[in-house]
């Protein structure tokens, strides 16, 4: 998986599952939504799960901004191969896809 510096292509490995995804948490969210749908059928609820989609893009993972609790040293900030900020510099890509999926869910085109 490594660092996102200078990476622009998606991960192309069948069955790949990123380290940042918590399958148990994803199942818990889905179960909670399913229970809510059963108990309140009048509600229209949908989940747009972008987790796996995002995991395929190394350049879509934050790096230096993920270090929230301990500030990076000036040396670390000068070493992009170790501390690249790919969300802010290497994209468009992942957030644009999220927006397109949200738009398509909010405004579905008639068939």
Automatic annotation (TrEMBL):
All copies of domain Trichome birefringence-like C-terminal, residue ranges: 2-104
Organism expressing this protein natively: Nymphaea colorata (pocket water lily)
GO CC terms in record: Golgi apparatus
GO terms of molecular function: O-acetyltransferase activity
PANTHER family: PROTEIN TRICHOME BIREFRINGENCE-LIKE 11, PROTEIN TRICHOME BIREFRINGENCE-LIKE 9-RELATED
One Pfam family of this chain: PC-Esterase
Highest rank taxon of the organism: Eukaryota
InterPro entries attached to this UniProt entry: TBL, TBL_C
Name of the featured protein: Trichome birefringence-like C-terminal domain-containing protein
Family stated for the protein in its record: Belongs to the PC-esterase family. TBL subfamily.
